[in-house]
Amino acid sequence: MSVAPADVAKIASLARIRLSDQEVAAMVPELNGILAWVEQLGEVDVTGVAPMTAVIPNSLRLRDDVVGADPLTGGNVRDAVLANAPAAEHGFFGVPKVIE
Amino acid sequence: MTELTDLSLAAIRDGVAAGDFTATEVAGAFNAAVAEANPALNAFIVTTPDHALAAAARVDAARAAGQPLGPLAGVPIGMKDLFATRGVQTTAASHILEGFVPPYESTVSQRLWDAGAGMLGKLNLDQFAMGSSNETSAFGNVISPWRATGDTAQRAPGGSSGGSSAAVAARIVAAATGTDTGGSIRQPAAFTGITGIKPTYGRCSRWGIVAFASSLDQAGPMARDVTDCAIMLEAMAGFDPKDSTSLDLPVPAWSAALSDNLAGVRVGIPREYRLDGMDADVAASWEAGIAWLKDAGASVVDISLPHTKYALPTYYIIAPAEASSNLARYDGVRYGLRDLPDGASLQDMYAATRAAGFGAEVKRRILIGTYVLSAGFYDAYYTQAQKVRTLIARDFEQAFAQVDVILTPTAPTSAFVLGEKSADPLEMYLNDVFSVPASLAGLPAMSVPAGLDRHGLPLGLHLIGRPFDEQGVLNAGLAIERRAGFAARPDKWW
């Protein structure tokens, strides 16, 4: 499989990365080179092989379902959460208007 | 007396404990070495001399008060700028995080401070740890302290932990943290003549480490020798409820159990790693490694890891797929850069922010990852890669029925000149051909210096162990270290 400029533009839009037409054009052969190379995986017989889910067997844990289990994110830490926001306003994350 | 900056981590710790010198003197000596070298090497994105001095003052006060000292008391280290450090800018070497000051501390860095270490600064790296030469950093290339004989060309310190490797090799830090997703501790260690170990996946908490590919990312130490790596790994490792994949296992006393007596140990030599056209010096150092391990009492067994050639393409599907998901969080809303063109909508802001904030290699990998996860291609690429990954892990499982540890070269060449491989992403990816398979299988693996090649540049040997058998890897590493007698260090040209 190979990608055309329209495919790259579509992927970039899905990934929310703005690319100029020149950047799309430059990316097409690079992505096609990488995709052609990874395509060799198609020759491996994987009949009956399960996809890897965990390299080291481990059981997932759940923390207690209580407020404030993690003091870093558990509540009453609004100023710390907003401290690195590019536009914090009135105790919220500020974003461009999304409704008219 | 030897210069304090020439001492190993263990010698610094023991010297501080014995009162031969103070932690403050050590921190001062390293701070001065960093200030002198960093303009030339660009190993640090920010330096934090006050952090190092404050930690040292606490150690000196504790010693004066007769209190017990931690296992890294008085040791000044460098912290890869992928670890969140409270109150100190953390960037992952990306413009998109420039100015980000975490209000929290990563588990691994906290454990190191609790053990008595101090921080000299945040070390440069490939952007979001994506690269093998440190050329994708938004803060400029790291320059290796090593130069080829009779040649002043600037060489790669390896990547992604290139600031870490350069700083340890230049003796401006006693040791450094690294992270390894496909070889990012081991390849830079090999390029700079130092030692680095990636432990079993889950040994070190990932909490507070900027995520690249979460099923592969592991932190580990980079230091001057095997003993220092063992001591530092003991401080870094351990169960952390904040990381869902953290291993709930006790941390063995690796440093106390170090032994280079390999009687009864079987060492596997995988035939698939003998690549056509292998560099003659790399092949010779591999042969020397085999002889050293035999000399230490090990027996050597030829083994097969039949899916080795598929490891790199598998990695270059899985790692970008995970990265495209992990890096979705950089949206210009909660932290980091925001680019808001006039009249832009929210969607435009996302796209503009990510266009301005991410470097070319990061964008390339996000696009690959988005593509292989997209509707219609997911099974052909991503599911197929995860199945091949199962086969690669199974290869190792079968090999470890026959052998205890596997020996290979760490990298296919010694350090290349900066710019030499940056034009072709595929050529750069091939640098990780020997390190990626162990990453895909979550296995402990380390690089130890083996010698210099015909250009006077370091070569590393690579040891891969069973899951949880860091001890077997460290002991085989120690056997090589003691027999290789690697004492070369870069000339101080800075």
What's a quick, concise take on this entry?
Chain A is mainly alpha-helical and 100 residues long. Helices cover 33% and strands 4% of the residues of chain A. The longest helix of chain A is centred in the first third of the chain and has 18 residues, at 21-38.
Written account of the structure:
The complex is a heterodimer of chains A (about 100) and B (about 500). Chain A has 3 helices and 2 strands. Chain A is mostly helical. Among the domains of chain A are: about 5-45; about 65-95, no CATH class. Chain A has a two-stranded antiparallel sheet. The two termini of chain A are about 40 Å apart. The mean pLDDT of chain A is about 90. In chain B, strand 2 (about 75-80), helix 4 and strand 3 form a beta-alpha-beta unit. Chain B contains 15 helices and 11 strands. The two termini of chain B are about 25 Å apart. The longest helix of chain B has 22 residues, at about 380-400. In chain B, strands 1-3-2-4-6-5-10-11-9-7-8 form an 11-stranded mixed sheet, sandwiched between helices. Chain B has a domain at about 5-265: Amidase signature (AS) enzymes, CATH 3.90.1300.10. The radius of gyration of chain B is 21 Å and the shape is globular. Chain B is an alpha/beta fold and about 500 residues long. The mean pLDDT of chain B is about 95. At the A-B interface, helix 1 and helix 2 of A face helix 9, helix 10, helix 11 and helix 12 of B.
Q: Which residues of chain A form runs of ≥5 with pLDDT under 50?
A: none
Main-sheet strand order of chain A equals 1-2
Cα(first) to Cα(last) distance of chain A is 42 Å
Strand order of the largest sheet of chain B: 1-3-2-4-6-5-10-11-9-7-8
Q: For this structure, what is the CATH class of the domain at 4-263 in chain B?
A: Alpha Beta
How much of the residues of chain B is beta strand, in percent? 5-15%
Key descriptive features of the protein:
heterodimer, A: 100 residues, mainly alpha, flat, B: 494 residues, alpha/beta, Amidase signature (AS) enzymes, 37% helix, 13% strand
